[in-house]
Amino acid sequence: MSRESRKNISKTEGEFGFIERLSNVVSAASYDGDKDIFVGIGDDGAVVGSPENNSILTTDALVDGVHFKSSDGRWYDVGWKSAVSNLSDIAAMGGTPDHALVTIGVPLNSPAEIFDGIYSGMNAAFQSFGGRVVGGDVVSSPTMFINVALTGHTSVNANGEPILLTRNAAKSGDLVCITGTLGSSAGGLEVLRRKSTDTNSRVLIERHFHPIPRIDIGQALLEAGVRCAMDISDGLIGDLEKIAIQSSVNIAIDLSKIPTEPELKSIFGERAIDFALGGGEDYELVFTTSKSTLAQLNDKERNSINIIGKVSKSSDNEGHVTVVDKNNKPYRALRKGWDHLSV
Hints:
Blueprint: H1 3-12, H2 14-28, E1 37-39, E2 46-49, E3 54-63, H3 75-92, E4 96-106, H4 112-129, E5 132-140, E6 145-153, E7 175-179, H5 184-194, H6 199-209, H7 215-224, E8 228-231, H8 236-247, E9 249-254, H9 262-268, H10 272-278, E10 285-289, H11 291-294, H12 299-303, E11 305-313, E12 320-324
Parallel strand pairs: 4-5, 9-12
Antiparallel strand pairs: 1-2, 2-3, 3-6, 4-6, 7-10, 7-11, 8-10, 9-11
């Protein structure tokens, strides 16, 4: 692909338009009656197999200069996040992680401690939340990268059919909810750029390097009856837009309801909310459900959840997200979220 064509893709489509383009190409080559594919391109993971023996498939890559800096030498942290970014996709579908294949590309003559650190961090994450590395590949590359492909599985109903959390199941009248707090990872990246080392900064840096995948709460949501969810990896607004579009609904968010850590507010003041709306890499879950379904969760689970908005019908079936402030006036976020092909 030429440099010019890459530029055109970025300008006209962005990452998610490009994914839709690829989905159309792949779908055109598919056979009618692919009954072994329950969820295809466009969700946190694909779900394939038989009803009784399903597999969730997901993959994610980290690239030097985009997701981490090799000059920092924080290899354990890079390994941890490379595992968590995939574990979070399994959590977003209410699944249980199983097995991982890891491909690493490194420049020639890279020191062995790079591999030791990466795999130590990766193994620590899998041991904490489930999953295990069972193979992979190592290649030479001028730019370092790590790609993890992770499998998982999900529950089945009485008919033996997979039960899943997906992006296309939001309904008018649903509440919009999130787990945890938002914006700390993006705030941590910013204080790293500033080279800040105070106590509040260290809290945010920890959140940036060591996010927690919400495996347990994802499974609890599924068991309670929630059916629509995804993880917040690219930013709250951008990720909610994916739910709104795939579910053909409108989503309204109350700015005052979005929770952030006190350390984020202490350092960034009013700007903290923009980190929460568009920062990304929080790896919390955003989901929609009814009030009665939310009541099925236990006290501990409910205490980790905040209601931040509501779902309504979309008159044009296109799907839209709006954010309003405490005076019910539209709030324009500085950034919707991360897009790898934006300009």
